[in-house]
Amino acid sequence: MNQTQDTLIRGISEYEDGFGNRIICGSDNVSIHLRNDSHDNRVQIGSDSIGGELIIHLRGNANDVVIEENCVFPSRSVIMMNGGDLRIADECTFGTGLLIMVSGYSSIAIGKDCMFSYDVNLLAGDGHPIYDLESGEVINLEGINTDECFGGSIEIGEHVWLGLGARVMGGINKTVIGNGSIIGANSLVKGSFPNNAIIAGVPAKIVRKNIAWGRQTCGMGDMKSVCNGYTEFTV
Asked: What's the farthest any 2 CA atoms get from each other in the chain?
């Protein structure tokens, strides 16, 4: 059996081949593993991002990855499969243990200034087919010509804080987390949630509304005086 090999792309600001794959990378410490039978993939990474090491695995075709400016990844792996779409906006920060998986025509969009703690997982798309035993049909491919196929997608708003060990899953209906919200530690999140809410539990639910949060460390300076800077995310 022939085994398909990867092309490792590292330390190159621009890459293009005859199969429609194009990579523009303004940051160091990025390793991209491109499967040799893949085509029409796009990767664009802004300047002043990464920080540690970012590893991107591209499987399948027509994957589209955009990471904007001033994002921080300590040492990470992003896995794209079969037409996945990943968008990460400016000034997002990620803790160690991050896993992002986008498969089967699904997508993940992360708004600007989001803060991810350690061991956070984002999983859009089931990755493998599920069959109905009577009909033999694949039941998790509903909406194959829409944005909701193969298990659905994830949309995270701006200035969202994801706590330690949070898991966010796509579904047949898109999972949406509103601006300014907080995901509690070890929560399992699936569904649609509003702006400025604390969301926690397994499965996650809203435990408090009408909140805002800041990046400053508790106990360092006047907490109350900076609150107004975060109320812009309130509905």
From this structure: 65
